[in-house]
Each structure stands twice: as C-alpha cells, then as structure tokens.
Amino acid sequence: MPPAPAPAPAPTSYLIGLIGSGIGPSLSPALHEQEADHHGLRLLYRTLDLDQLGLGADDVGRLVHTARRLGYDGLNITHPGKQTVIPHLDDLSEDASLLGAVNTVVFGPDGKSCGHNTDWSGFTTSFAHGLKHAPTRQIVQLGAGGAGAAVAHAMLTLGAGQLALVDTEAGRASSLAAELVARFGPGRAAAAPQEKLADLLATADGLVHATPMGMAHHPGLPLPAELLHPQLWVADVVYRPLDTELLRRARALGCRTLDGGGMAAHQAAQAFRLFTGCEPDAGRMLAHMATLVAT
User: Fold this and answer.
1) Helix axes 28-38, 261-276, angle to 10 degrees
2) Separation between Cα atoms, residue 259 and residue 239, nearest integer Å
3) What is the extent of the structural domain holding 211?
4) Which candidate in 82, 112, 132, 196 is catalytic?
5) pLDDT tens across 145-161, in order?
6) Is 196 a residue of the active site?
7) Per-residue pLDDT at 7 exceeds 90
8) DSSP code at position 210
9) What is the pLDDT of residues 179-193, one digit of tens each?
10) What is the pTM of this model?
C-alpha cells in the first residue's frame, strides 16, 4: 500500500480585504499586517471602499463574490454591509447567526464563505477593561444596526439590567429588541422612540453609541449635547477618529468614557485568528493601535 500523502503545508501568505463605506482612514490594514509580521507571515490587507467604487450596501454581496474569485482568503465587513452580506454567504458561525450580523468572512479551501461576528466579544473585552465596575442597571443604546446588534448582545451578556434601543429606523430597534428579549428574557430590552431620549438618559447609568455618526465621513454628535450629564458613562464604537466629539463633550462634563479603540483591536485580533489560524497577541495589537492613533 502506498504511503499516505503528506498533509499540505499551512499557507504563509494571505490576501485580506475590508469592505465598507468611508473606510479610507481605517487602521485595520496596519493592525493585521504588523501582527502577521510578528508571526513570520506575509499578509496583504486591502480596503474596498464602497464610496470610492460607487457602490452601496446592496452591492456588498456582489463584492464578496468578486473578492473570492480574485483569490482573497478573507474579508472584514463594516458599515453598511454587516447585515446585507448575510444572504450571500454559504454558512454562518453560531455567533453571526444568533446576532444576524457579520463583520468577518473567511473563504475556506473549498471556496465556500463563512461569516463570523467578532464585534460583540471585542466590545465585551474592551468594556470589561475600560469601564470596570461601571453600573449597568439601565443603559441607553443609540443604533440597532449590525454594530448595534453586537454591542447590545455584549451589554446584556455583561449583565445589563435594562437596555433601551433608539434608532432612526423604529422598526429596526423593535426587531432587535424582540430578538434580545427572546434570547435574554422579558424586560431586558425594549425599543424606544427618539422623542423619549431625554427622559431615558436622565435616569440611565450609561450610553452606548453604535451608529456611524462621529466617523471621519460622518462628523458630528448623535444626540443633543445637553442630554449628557456627569452621572452617565459613555461608550462609543467609533474608533476613527478615536476621540469623537461625543466623547470630548462627555469627558468635559466629567463622564467616564470608553473609546472604540479597544473593541476595534480585540475584534481584529479574533478576526486575525480566523484568517490565519495563528494565535494573535491582543495586547500587542492594542498597543500598535495606540501608536497608530498617536502618529
């Protein structure tokens, strides 16, 4: 009997992309490429900006198929494609299926695509370190899209008592609230109209911001500044810029704040593991992000 063929060597080079809108300032390419260097891997990370390509959220699936044909090994997905990409994937991880949002796509040796979600666990780790012992009895969250679904799941996993979801699309907030109640139990989450935001924040422990507002291509505040108060902690998922106007206004009032850098670094570390099979150093990636932001 002939000897069994030797297993194929693990790949040492990777082509990864990021699909999203207004992603020119993204730090993901530098984060992934430098971590790959530490592992002796060649990793090329490209941005596929929907704005520059003249595409929209409904074109994300087509772009994923094109990337697969061009030999990409994986993709990160950001706003506005975390939910619209799902029908175009062959499979979903348990987390991605549960949350209905994908931020990482891995193309297997067979060419099939699997969507994952590393956002929620990235936010969980960042919150546990950056807002340690922060009260979570009543939380208000702005945004119920792809990022919103992930951080809402994270907050309830962390033990938040009640989560009020506010979104410009009321139906999206209601849908996410229903999913969270089914998952975590009655009374844990509810949709709320924007007109109630002042009343909600007046008694809330914390505010989680999970919309694109504050990003380089979407500058500004996601709510009237006068609704912030010193007893409130404020967490922002935006990380480019790291110091958003929302966080600056909150800090000026004496609020505890959490920027989006920790979530970005920790979710990137988990995505790197999915892309390469190598164990990343999340602390090193976080330090690298701090250096990138400072330069």
Assistant:
1) 50
2) 7
3) 135-255
4) 82
5) 999 999 999 999 999 99
6) no
7) no
8) -
9) 999 999 999 999 999
10) 0.89
